[in-house]
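Example (one chain per record):
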Amino acid sequence: MSQKRKTLMIIMDQFRGDLVTGIRGAKTGKEALSNHIKLPNIDALRQEAVTFAAHYSVANPCGPARASIFTGMYAMNHRSVRNGTPLADGIPNVAMEARKSGYDPLLYGYTDTSIDPRGRHENDPDLRTEEHVLPGFTEALEMRYQESYPWRAYLKSKGYDIPEYARFYDSISPDPTRAARADDPPFYKAEHSDTAFTTDAVIHDLSVRCDQDWFALVTYLRPHPPLVAPAPYNTMYKGADLPLPPRMARPEGEAAVHPFMKAALVAPPMGKTVRGAAQDVDPENDADVQMLRALYLGLATEVDTHIGRIVAFLKDTGQYDDTVILLMSDHGEMLGEHHMWGKQNPYEAAYHVPLIIRDPQYPEQFGTTINAFTESIDVAPTILDLIGQRAPASMDGASLRPFLAGETPGDWRDAVHLELDFSEPDKPTVWQKATGTSAQESNLAVLRETRFKLVHFDGDLRPLLFDMLGDPHEMCNLAEDPAHMKTLLRMTQKLLSHRMKHGDGTLTSYKVTAQGAIECRS
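Predicted structure:
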């Protein structure tokens, strides 16, 4: 039975899990950026919600990560495995299913969906962008990273002499006598930033929907690069005050771990995280590394500020206790760990992300933290469960409602399953060149338990094995240690069984009989 309620999904982009809940498995946590960043509004929300501390994105980068969030499917099943890889028509998703409850799901931002080209004319403009809208959502505000036309028009209306869009995220020197530095602000003020503009639109639009049971998805680009922050966020944190990223002494040591890592060190290079002053950023200079880490924290705090504005709006308009809130990130960011940047590698920082859920129906659980493993594919089934809709058989995830109600399912997972495809269909990637793998072989799968983590590579590449309790920063590969051969075999078998169990089940519960097609779901 449908149970319509106001439903708010907030997805931050490239927001690390340890900004909120620290480093899983670490004994001290001193390196955790949660000890060095101010997120007062997220912290306040956590006191009135449930925090899932062991939450993982099952895929990256942005397109595959969001496809899994919205469809509840592993990448091995939805197969939108790269930015720009189409999501096939007909795959159920959270927006289409919410419509069955009478919602018109509103999108403020982007879903990073590349649409199915089959049945479309080659000149269809929808096939000219990898950032189309997921079927089922109504685009209330276009804030696609590669477009953002409403924001551009807004800045122009505010009197800005706007540059060409390719230069929007350049840092601008406030002193005409010197060149711009990476920690200089952009041309726009904080009150007019992309984050502020998105929030303004959400509050403006929802202010006349207070009497409705709305469904809204709000997506923030930040703290995704380019790492340029308006004042005061650009100088809010000092690099000298932050811990250095966990890493080997030299990049060459990281490259020697595995052929894949040689490419991961330069895909992307540190300089690609900034614009306008990239030539002045030296990855061998710790001061530059720390400056960019500080900028990232500043952008994360800016997002926190505007999350606080939305929560305040809900409270001021009497909607807060009628609204289910889910706050999450699509994937993580290496931020210099292992001398790497971005997210397209199998290390923890790329996959561990925050998830906070507030369901006003379960106030007795407010302020609690769940340490059981959860995956981004659980988000869609959870939302559907909370609004009284049955999740389609195609969804691999499971509802988190029992945890919100203070219960732990007896058969809950003891590991997370993560994936990465590192090929491109038009030309070989740096990862393909480094590993010598074909497009069909350029992929990996991860099985992460509480203690051990297996990274299995296709293409007959050697695996990686880490002890996440004794070595939470993944510095020592145990895959070739004879003492861990049994563990390697056990986890490889477990990974295979997991993938066999979770093959696409869209129609497997159906049987065609003389009485017609029947569905038998346990």
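Caption: The first helix runs from residue 40 to 46.
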